[in-house]
Design a protein that fits this description.
It contains 4 helices and 10 strands, in the order ααααββββββββββ.
Length: 184
Amino acid sequence: MADPELQQRIGAAVRRERLRAGWSAAELARRAGISKGNVSQLESGAGNPTVETLWALSDALGLPFSALVDPGSAGPILVRADTAQEVPAASASYNASLLSACPPGARRDLYLVKAEPGEAKRSAPHQPGTIEHVVLVTGSAAVGPDAEAVLLQPGDYLAYRGDAPHVFHAMEPGTTAIIVSELR
C-alpha cells in the first residue's frame, strides 16, 4: 500500500478504536494475534498493513473491516476503477478495495477484489454471523469454504459463511470480483 492518506486514516482509526475499547497497544496486539510493534507502526501511520492484519484488528475490536479504512462521506460517492485504494494480502496476489462501508444501522461492507493466479488467498474466520456474498466479474476463481470451494465464472454468485475458514483462488489472470461482507 503506497497511499499515505490511507495509511494515516488506518492509523488514526486503529488508535481511536483501541482507546475506545480501553486497551493498550499490547492488549490489542495480543487479541489480534499480531506484534505490538506492528500496532504501534500502524497507529503512527508508518505501517503498511495487509488485508489479514486489518481483518485481525477489526475482529479483535468487534468492528467491521470498513471501520479501519473508510474515509466517510456526506454526498454521492464515486469510486473510479483506476483510483480505488487497494490493500494487498500478505502471501497471495490479491488486493481488496473498500467500495462502500457499512452505513449506520446496517452491517455490511462492499469490496472490489483483484486477484491473480498463484497462491490462494486463505482467510481466517471473521466475526461470528459473517456471511460473504461473491459475484465474479472477470476471470475464474475457486471461492468459498476451504473444503468446499466452488469454481466461479463471470456472473456467478456465491454466498457462504465468512465466520469459518474460506478461500479465494484466482484461476485466470485479471480475475475480479465484488464481495459483500454481511454481519447478521
